[in-house]
Amino acid sequence: MDSLELTQIFDKLVVDTQALTSDIKSYQRGFWLPAVDQVNPKDDSNLTSACSVLQDFWYKDGQDGRETRSCFGFIALPEHVLQHAKDINTLKESFKECVQKFQKHNKESWVSLKGELARRHPSVQQQLHFSGLSRLHLKQTWRTIPIIERAPSRIGFNWYQSGRSITKITVQQAYDSLSRLNTDSKHIQVQLAALVKLPSNTPLAKVQNLAPTMRANLFYEDGHHPLRQAMNISLPILIKCSKNETLPVHNSPDTVPPTNRARAVRSDRKIEDTPFLPSIRVHRYY
Question: How many Å apart are CA 218 and CA 237, to the nearest integer?
Fold first, then answer.
């Protein structure tokens, strides 16, 4: 994998995505997207904003490196536009694979190449009000565009904020992780002292609370299976829709997730709520 091939794939991805947003504006057969301006909502500005998110490959000033900007909703489109979106998803996957290979085999030159990629296509950045930015947001660049081949009768949008990433680790692995931190700090010493008291075969869990995610529940009444489909989305769903088909019924959730957890804690939960080793987010099992 060389830098020229990677650059060519990125260029094609940017240009093709820009063309896709033009197709969406020209051929859309209806849509629902949350209002950009809650006071003076305008449908055309909602669609323009959604198209901007589809092309959103750069960090904005002050954006947290772990944050990804998103937009939910749906847009009804003819088959040829959906095929264009599918081709872009294939291109996104190719770009992701190329970046990962380049990072693995060309670590020293990756930082420089990433900066060069981010500075390409200034006209697109200016159009999206990202002029002058030079940081490429990889996760936003290669995230998949959600595509549905048949129109659902109903879509329920709900914020899912109970997600957690749980990885089982050993006492030794926890000790190694803590030892890589500043062991002169008292709070690290306290945690190491607590850890060495555990039997070496004690199972531990490294827990990371995931960012709230918009989940779309799609319901069908056309006699096909499955009759229900669920997906987590960070981009608007592109739905295949003929000229005479009606748009799916949908709810209108808040544009930002609620601050309080809405779901009840599972009764079979086996991990302690309070971390045993807070510096590395490690919990004990009951």
Answer: 11
Cα 113 from Cα 43, distance rounded (Å): 39
Strands across the sheet with 204-209, in order?
A: 164-169, 204-209, 282-284
- 119 phi and psi angles, rounded to 5 deg: -90, 0
- How far, in Å, CA of 57 to CA of 231, rounded? 22
Model confidence over 205-251: pLDDT tens digits?
999 877 788 999 999 987 766 688 999 999 999 999 988 888 999 99
Largest CA distance in the chain: 70
Beta partners for 157? Answer: 216
Residues paired with residue 46 on neighbouring β-strands, in sequence order: none
Q: Is the peptide bond before 248 cis (omega within 30 degrees of 0)?
A: no
14-57 per-position pLDDT tens digit: 999 999 999 999 999 999 998 765 545 556 789 999 999 999 89
Helix or strand holding residue 50 (H, E): helix 43-54
pLDDT reported for residue 197: 94
Q: Tokens 């290669």 map to which residue?
A: 142
| DSSP 8-state class, residue 272 | -
- Strands 74-77 and 164-169, how do they pair? unpaired
Beginning with the edge strand found earlier in the chain, give each strand of the sheet holding 154-160 in spatial order.
Answer: 228-233, 213-219, 154-160, 249-250
Q: Which two tokens stand for residue 265?
A: 């804690």
pTM attached to this predicted model: 0.77
Q: What is the DSSP string of 71-102?
A: ---EEEE-HHHHHHHHHHHHHHHHHHHHHHHH
Q: What is the DSSP letter of 278?
A: G
Both tokens of residue 251? 């709810």
Helix boundaries (H) for the chain: 3-27, 43-54, 79-105, 107-118, 122-127, 138-142, 171-179, 186-196
